[in-house]
C-alpha cells in the first residue's frame, strides 16, 4: 500500500507538496535501492561455509563412494562397470556379469544383498549426511530368462520355465526400504529407479537389494529333467547408485 | 476510495487534484520494492532466512535436447553408433566449453521410447541384446575426448536365449531411462554429450522414437 501521510505540516489551503512525500520516502528508497550489500548486512548472515568450493572425497568409508560436499547439498555415487557387450550366442555372457543361481546359492526368500566379493562397488554408498532430504536413484541392468524343462506327467513334453517369475530391485537407507522397482518380468532391462527419504545428521548407508521369485509353475507341475537352466538365475551386469543430500 | 495518494499540487493557495506525480512515485517505489525481493540478489545477503540455498543450487551448465516428433529410427549396427534421429538434431550436442573443477557434479539423464520391434526372434535365437551408453566430451589436457560415463546399459528384445525353447518379444512400446552421476577428480573442459547404441547382431533392429537428453553441472 502506498504511503498516504507525511511528517510535514500542510500549507495553506490544505495543500501538501510532492517534495514533502519525496523527502520522507527517500530514506526508505535508499535502503531498498542500495547500500544493502555493505552497511546493512547483518553479521554472519553469509559466512564462508556457504561460499567455499566443493570438497571431493573418494572411498572415504571403504565402499568406493565418490562424494562431493557442497555448501547446500552433497552428491554421492558408486558404480559397477564391466565390459558386457560381448556375448556368445545362446548365453548371457560375459562371465564377468553377476550371476547367481538359486539351486546352488543361498537366496533369501525376499530381499537379497549382492555378493560384494563380486559386485565390488556400486551396490552401496556411504557418506555423512546432514539433516534434510535425500533424493537419488539407481540405474541398473537386471536380467532373468526363461529356462526349459521336460517331465511332469508326460516325460516327452518340454516347456518353458520361470516365464511368470518376477524380479524386483529395492533401495534401503540405513535399513529402511525407501524405493523399489515393482515387479519386472522375464528379459534384460536397464531400470532407472528413483527414491527419496528424510534424513538426519548422521552416518548414512544406502544399499541396493534384489528379489527374484524362484521357479513358480503356473500349473503346479514340477519338472523332472532340466533342459536349459537359464530360469534358475538372476543376473546383474552394471549399476550406478547415486544420492543427493539436500540440507535443511 | 482507494488508498492512492491524493494531494494538492501546484501553486500555494490553489487547489489541485493532480494525482499523477506522487502516485507515480509511490507506485514505482512499491514496484521496485517487490522486485528487490525476487531478483535483486543483494537483498538475499540480508538474512539467511531469505537466502534460497535450499531450492536454487547453482546450476552451471544445463544442456538439453529433445526429439519430439515421434518419428522412429532404426539402429541395427553391431558397433556403437550415435543416436542421430529427431526434429531437433542429433543426441550429439556440443556447446561452449565449461571449465569444470574438482568436485563439480555432472548429472546426466537420457530416456527414450522404443517401437514394437519386428525382430524375428525365432530366427535369431540367443541374439537379442541391445546396449545404450552415454558419453561426455571432456578435455583434461590431452584434447577433447568422448568419454563413457556410467556403464553400458543392457536390454533385450526377447525373453529366451537358449537354443531350444520358445521366445516371446518383450520389446513393445517402452520407455527406458538412465541417470548417471560423475564427479571429476581433475579440472578440464566439458564441451558436449551424446548417446550411442548397438545391437548384438545386425539382424536385430532397435527402433527408437522420442528421446530426451539433459546434462546439468551443479555445485553450490
Please tag this protein with its features.
heterodimer, A: 248 residues, mainly beta, 7-stranded antiparallel beta sheet, B: 220 residues, 5-stranded antiparallel beta sheet, 1 helix, elongated
Summed up, what is this model?
The complex is a heterodimer of chains A (248) and B (220). With 248 residues, chain A is mainly beta.
Task: Tell me what you see in this structure.
The complex is a heterodimer of chains A (248) and B (220). With 248 residues, chain A is mainly beta. Helices cover 6% and strands 44% of the residues of chain A. Chain A has one helix and 15 strands, in the order αβββββββββββββββ. In chain A, the strands form three sheets. In chain A, strands 1, 2, 3, 4, 7, 12 and 15 form a seven-stranded antiparallel beta sheet that branches. In chain A, strand 2 and strand 3 (73-80) form a beta hairpin. Chain A is elongated, with a radius of gyration of 31 Å. By secondary structure, chain B is mainly β. In chain B, 9% of the residues lie in helices and 40% in strands. Chain B has one helix and ten strands. In chain B, the strands form two sheets. In chain B, strands 1, 2, 5, 8 and 10 form a five-stranded antiparallel beta sheet that branches. Residues 1-8 and 35-56 of chain B have low confidence and may be disordered. The chains are: A mainly beta (248), B mainly beta (220). At the A-B interface, helix 1, strand 1, strand 2, strand 3 and strand 7 of A face helix 1, strand 5, strand 6, strand 7 and strand 8 of B.
